[in-house]
Write a structure and sequence with these properties.
- The chain is mainly α.
- The protein is built from seven helices and no strands.
- It is globular.
């Protein structure tokens, strides 16, 4: 049975669903669209569950995928008034990634995860709260009991570390 490959996909999705819903809603500002994008996020994982064996952080992957779907939705919404019959455009090309693209993505995800793991603890915490949880600097500051300026400083350290490591490995 194929569901035996990754039974934790459902558990992980149920665990991050509320937080993911909030992140998506912040982007699209519509409850119905949020529900649709939440379902699309789960379906993308479920349809490709056998390819996700290498993903160590399913929760982070769910959050990133949901956020990206919300961003794609916003882009399409901005373009739609200028394109006639935009619904027909989705049939022009297959949006699903190739096996090679998935392998490259998994490799890059592991590389980024290793860089994040090597960050100073507070910079890593601020980075994850901002980029994974979608919190603002003010929200992070309140949560950690530090000023927004200090949050910003930690974020600069994290982003510089990420940028330099990504450039040095190429």
């Amino acid at each position: 049975m194929t569901s035996a490959h990754r039974p934790e996909i459902l558990d992980t999705f149920l665990h991050v669903r509320t937080r993911l819903s909030a992140v998506i809603y912040r982007r699209v500002q519509c409850s119905a669209t949020t529900a649709d994008l939440l379902q699309d996020t789960f379906l993308r994982f479920w349809e490709r569950r056998s390819l996700l064996r290498e993903v160590a952080d399913l929760a982070g992957y769910f959050m990133t995928t949901g956020r990206n779907l919300a961003l794609d939705h916003q882009r399409r919404k901005r373009i739609a008034p200028f394109v006639d019959g935009i619904d027909g455009l989705e049939a022009v090309s297959d949006p699903s990634p190739s096996a090679e693209q998935i392998a490259i993505g998994v490799h890059e995800l592991r590389r980024i995860a290793a860089i994040i793991d090597d960050m100073p603890p507070r910079a890593r915490q601020v980075f994850l709260m901002s980029r994974v949880d979608g919190l603002s600097y003010a929200e992070i500051g309140t949560h950690l009991g530090i000023s927004s300026k200090t949050v910003f400083s930690h974020m600069v350290v994290a982003l510089e570390r990420l940028r330099s490591e990504m450039l040095s490995d190429n």
